[in-house]
Amino acid sequence: MARVIPIRRGATENGGAGSTIDAGPSWVPGFVVWMVPVLAVVGWELYCLSSLPRAAHPTLSALLDIVDSTRVGKTIACASWLVGGWFLVTA
Question: What is the domain partition of the chain in residue ranges?
Answer without folding.
Answer: 58-91
